[in-house]
Write a structure and sequence with these properties.
The chain is mainly α and 256 residues long. The protein is 58% helix and 3% strand. It has ten helices and two strands; from the N terminus they run H-H-H-H-E-H-E-H-H-H-H-H. A two-stranded antiparallel ribbon has the order 1-2. Helix 1 runs antiparallel to helix 4, helix 2 (46-63) runs parallel beside helix 9 and helix 3 packs antiparallel against helix 9.
Length: 256
């Protein structure tokens, strides 16, 4: 027998809609707050750009080696490994072999840390306020029932704050609706703000996990010379397999 609960229909309008609207507005405000708090990236000097692009060139060579001929790969490999070992691409060749500088004394590293702290504040403060608001006014309410069956594994996710063992797993509590909106509004934010938005919780977490993607190949306090030597070793041990090797025989055998 299907389980039914007699509940006030107004709960749907006075709990579900307000939570969804507040979450969407909070995401939009978080996006614009993140844009305002973001500092303008400083322009890199030519030696620093050369150092980073040279490392990227070696990584691209290693990842796409199968699309070039063995002679071309060998020439590029010998040039890159020799330059890596000799420190040709280093921004500061005179500091080669010295201990890495303390990242706390590096202005660029400190600026990156401050950017991460601003992003954390823009993410944590609104969510803390919304969580307190929901716990104060909407805790313990069951607001909707999903139209499709679910297994018991979803009970703890959909019925947070409602400790009822015999309640059907398809019923959703107000607190669980908040969490569903927290991680499920990515498509709405893309529709409103575009793909490059800072409103999504998951997008901000991914950007904080890799804050320097595409901007700086070296982490704060990392020795570029050791990174170059490691990449040279990776190129040396790479076994090259040309994708077009024996392509004529393979083509003739496929049509014969």
């Amino acid at each position: 027998m299907e389980q039914s609960i007699h509940r006030d229909p107004a709960l749907f309008y006075w709990i579900l809609f307000p939570i969804s609207i507040v979450m969407i507005l909070t995401g939009i405000l978080r996006h614009y707050a993140t844009v305002l708090l973001a500092s303008t990236p400083k322009k890199l000097e030519l030696p620093a750009i050369r150092e980073q692009r040279s490392l990227m060139r070696g990584i691209n060579l290693r990842q796409n080696a199968h699309v070039i001929s063995p002679s071309s790969f060998a020439a590029r490999k010998n040039y890159m490994t020799t330059a890596y070992k000799e420190g040709t691409f280093l921004k500061d060749p005179e500091n080669r072999g010295k201990a890495a500088a303390n990242p706390m004394t590096d202005p660029a590293a400190m600026e990156g840390m401050m950017g991460m702290m601003k992003g954390n504040m823009a993410m944590m403060v609104p969510q803390t306020l919304i969580m307190s608001w929901i716990n104060a006014f909407f805790a313990g309410f069951v607001i909707m029932k999903l139209p499709f069956p679910l297994t018991l594994r979803f009970k703890s996710m959909l019925q947070s704050g409602v400790m009822t063992r015999d309640l059907d797993v398809r019923w959703v509590s107000s607190l669980s609706w908040y969490f569903l909106n927290l991680f499920g509004l990515q498509s709405v934010f893309i529709f409103i703000l575009g793909n490059e938005n800072a409103a999504s919780q998951m997008a901000q977490q991914m950007s904080q996990m890799n804050p320097g993607a595409g901007a700086n190949m070296f982490q704060p306090g990392q020795d570029p010379d050791k990174v170059f030597l490691s990449e040279a070793e990776n190129l040396e041990v790479l076994e090259h397999e040309y994708i077009l090797k024996g392509v004529e025989e393979r083509l003739l055998s496929s049509i014969a």
